[in-house]
Structure prediction request, 439 residues.
Amino acid sequence: MRYRRRKSKIVWIIIIISFIIIGVLLVLHYFFGKTASVSTTGIIPNLSGSEEIAGQNSAAPSDENQGISSGALPGGDEYKISFIEDYYKQPPLNYTMHNKPLPVAAKGIYVTANRAGIAEYFDGFFAVCKETEVNALVIDVKTDVGEITFKGEIPIADEMELSVNYIPNVRSVIKTLNDNGIYPIARIVAFKDNGACEKRPDLYIKNADGSLWRDSSSLESAWLNPYNKDSWDYILEIAKGAVDIGFKEIQFDYIRFDTSGRLDDADFGDTGGKTRIEIINEFTKYACEKISGWGAYVSADVYGTVIASEVDANIVGQDYRQMASYLDYICPMVYPSHYANGTFNIDYPDTEPYEVIDNAMKLSAKALEGLEHPAVVRPYLQGFTATWLRNGSRYIAYTPEEIKAQIQAASDNGIGEWIIWNPSANYDAASFEPENNLL
Prediction:
């Protein structure tokens, strides 16, 4: 009798222990199995995928001279991409290597500094964000003439009298954006810079006789010397000030060399034998490491043509794939108006907004294929009418329909974010889906 009772107890103990073991295994599978599945797809599973003085006086948009060389993306066989039938969605991202908050799928509009600083205009931009899918504003901090667009926040700019009070209440503006889930991006023009050339000429490209080198634009702009690492630190000192104010991302424009032939006679000092591409890559990596340490993201505007044209890449120093290996976001300026006639087998690219963006995004995905940690592609899309093309058959008015067509083309290629560029910062809310997409 006692033996039977003892045997019954042993059976019950074994059953209880079995249930405990099964329970522990289920708990371990729930937690560790879930973690493992996340690590294979990246920690952001659903994240898919300008130049002139920012609309002050310009008619043309950022990097208005994208057709750099005579061979820039012509309709010839070398650059035709109609054979690419499949497309590639944004590759998985792993941001565990960054000391920053999680990234966002930014759907943004460009805002000039003077309009950001005027309450009436700012309220209009704010309303667009509240009423539509737009959730980000790109705001000028350093313009292509070297002005800093607010005072009292960046000591080096104040000391050199480069600060202009376009945005007199900049901290309040940025706080309002952050408090309302609107992602603030600081546009910083990198190397094109007339501002400090008198007080810090040592930072600039020179002529052979030691005088200041200037480009062939209407402004005859001076350029900071990309081979001079002191110029890097000057740019980054301004970027640090923008981060301290509350900008979540630093976006570099003009992160390149000038496109005029005048550079053939320029004196860069000691180049160490490095090519333009090599030195721009070095600056990009250096800037990303610095800014990442400050807890902000880094993006860069690049010519759309450098995705496919080695000629253009060598002229401006922008290697699309290599830059994308350092940046958090890469912003190819794929404005249809900026492509040469015949590109992508399209007679007049400005008249076919969907087709241009569709082809450009396919080519972009192909260029970045295989990178371990590629930047998120966030294209700049055309929000202006290219009237300078003159011949009425070669351009069309860009209305909300054309803007939506570009956004749709990006989306159809797995790109879930974009920035619309209008140099005067004029936007129609009808260009965007009427949904609240705030962070």
